[in-house]
Amino acid sequence: MTKYPTMDEVVAIHFRVTEKTGGSQGVRNWDLLASALGRPQATFGGEDLYPDIFLKAAALVQSLSSNHPFVDGNKRTALTTLEYFLYLNGLQLKATQKEKVNFTLWAENEKPTIEKIADWIKKHTK
C-alpha cells in the first residue's frame, strides 16, 4: 500500500526548507496544496490514474511545483517532498545536488509529460 505525506508534514517540510535555504514562509493557498497532495491518489472508475509509484511521485512533484501553494520555495519544497514520499515507500532518490536542481528547473520550465518526469525519477531512484 502506497504511503503519502500528510498536509502537516508537507507544511513542516516547507518551513524547514525555507528556514535552511531562505525565502518567505507560509501557505499561499491551502486549496492548491490539498489539490497537489491529492493528485497522486486520484482515481477514475475505481482505477488509479497514476498506477505506479513513479507516476504518483511525478504527479506529486509536478503539482507541488506548478500549483505554487506556498509563498516561496515551491520547487525546493516539491523536491524535498518527493524525497520524503520515496522514503515513506522504501525508496531513495539517488541524484547529485546539481541533477536535482536541473530536474526541478526542467520540470517547471519545460513542462514535460508526467511520464517523462516519472522516467527521470525512476532512473534516479534506488
From TrEMBL:
Among Pfam families, the record links this protein to: Fic (PF02661)
Q: Where is the Fido domain?
A: 5-123
Under PROSITE patterns, the record lists: FIDO
**GO MF terms held by the record:** kinase activity
> What stretches pass through the bilayer?
none
Q: Which InterPro entries match?
A: Doc, Fido, Fido-like_dom_sf, Type_II_TA_Toxin
This chain belongs to which protein, by name?
Fido domain-containing protein
Which taxonomic lineage does the organism of this UniProt entry have? Bacteria, Candidatus Curtissiibacteriota
